């Protein structure tokens, strides 16, 4: 097979200057000028440094570590350093950053989300001031990478009540025993936040387990069909001794864990929008270039129908997460808001990547044309950080004035 033909940059009268092709209603223009400058820096880095690498690394199921210093240089998490003068970014900016990463590659979006959202977010929300100063400066510069260990081999959706990993107080420390599964970044992370149940109080506590701690092993999960760049691991904790200084001092129950998940769940919805944007962009470029019956296929009615359906899904979903971010920034959002966004956007994402693959026909399953990577990766985003079914129960409980359909 010959080389893949270059795909032209799409353009059109509806596009605001510098906006992504799928941003049909120019949502990005709601950001401040300074926020848009940051988005543009991230976009340029992802387009020039990451995009040329991701297909190859995805195919080999390896992680492009050479990109990590560049992520640090983008200042994505500088604000989390206790000594930084930067203020915390708005939820709207954070959302657009998650979208931007996923627009380039869902695996890189997951890597960033796990590190900055779940791992750093746990320390920010539940750590003492001393713990924040000990770990966050290096993490904010991406010099130390974090992971988040909650899901277990026998517990996903029921992890709140079914957490089996235990923490036993022993003198001036704790002994952790148990197993975790699907832990992103864990094969190379310097710090892994482990959630375990106190054998004495039955409360869920958080611990920072540092790399090479005796009794901690992380084994890469092989043969994944999605997010192949993400290095997910099975973690085993066998008599893993952690000092009291590494227990997150303000994590006292699963409610604290859930608070972190509530925030990051909205990030997954933004990632789903980014995947929709990326898949639509590929399909639009292809429709303008690919010729059949003597003209570009973008001039055929059925192809335009697919493009418009994809654009409608992406626009509706982007509107939802934009409003969600505004509610977050105003401090008036609730669990059910992020749950609905995660459920809705990931369903629409699944539709969009399927339509993009349909538009590309046979070329849609070839990695060179990129859309197949989006199709596969969408399956992981659809399930992680709470399945659609669990999100619907959260929303359903809210709209029925507290009638819970969760299994007791």
UniProtKB/TrEMBL annotation:
<dbReference type="InterPro" id="IPR013786">
    <property type="entry name" value="AcylCoA_DH/ox_N"/>
</dbReference>
<dbReference type="InterPro" id="IPR037069">
    <property type="entry name" value="AcylCoA_DH/ox_N_sf"/>
</dbReference>
<dbReference type="InterPro" id="IPR009100">
    <property type="entry name" value="AcylCoA_DH/oxidase_NM_dom_sf"/>
</dbReference>
<dbReference type="InterPro" id="IPR006091">
    <property type="entry name" value="Acyl-CoA_Oxase/DH_mid-dom"/>
</dbReference>
<dbReference type="InterPro" id="IPR046373">
    <property type="entry name" value="Acyl-CoA_Oxase/DH_mid-dom_sf"/>
</dbReference>
<dbReference type="InterPro" id="IPR036250">
    <property type="entry name" value="AcylCo_DH-like_C"/>
</dbReference>
<dbReference type="Pfam" id="PF02771">
    <property type="entry name" value="Acyl-CoA_dh_N"/>
</dbReference>
<dbReference type="Pfam" id="PF00441">
    <property type="entry name" value="Acyl-CoA_dh_1"/>
</dbReference>
<comment type="similarity">
    <text>Belongs to the acyl-CoA dehydrogenase family.</text>
</comment>
<feature type="domain" description="Acyl-CoA dehydrogenase/oxidase C-terminal">
    <location>
        <begin position="260"/>
        <end position="399"/>
    </location>
</feature>
<dbReference type="InterPro" id="IPR009075">
    <property type="entry name" value="AcylCo_DH/oxidase_C"/>
</dbReference>
<keyword id="KW-0285">Flavoprotein</keyword>
<dbReference type="InterPro" id="IPR006089">
    <property type="entry name" value="Acyl-CoA_DH_CS"/>
</dbReference>
<protein>
    <submittedName>
        <fullName>Acyl-CoA dehydrogenase family protein</fullName>
    </submittedName>
</protein>
<dbReference type="Pfam" id="PF02770">
    <property type="entry name" value="Acyl-CoA_dh_M"/>
</dbReference>
<feature type="domain" description="Acyl-CoA dehydrogenase/oxidase N-terminal">
    <location>
        <begin position="33"/>
        <end position="141"/>
    </location>
</feature>
<dbReference type="InterPro" id="IPR045008">
    <property type="entry name" value="ACX4-like"/>
</dbReference>
<keyword id="KW-0274">FAD</keyword>
<feature type="domain" description="Acyl-CoA oxidase/dehydrogenase middle">
    <location>
        <begin position="147"/>
        <end position="239"/>
    </location>
</feature>
<keyword id="KW-0560">Oxidoreductase</keyword>
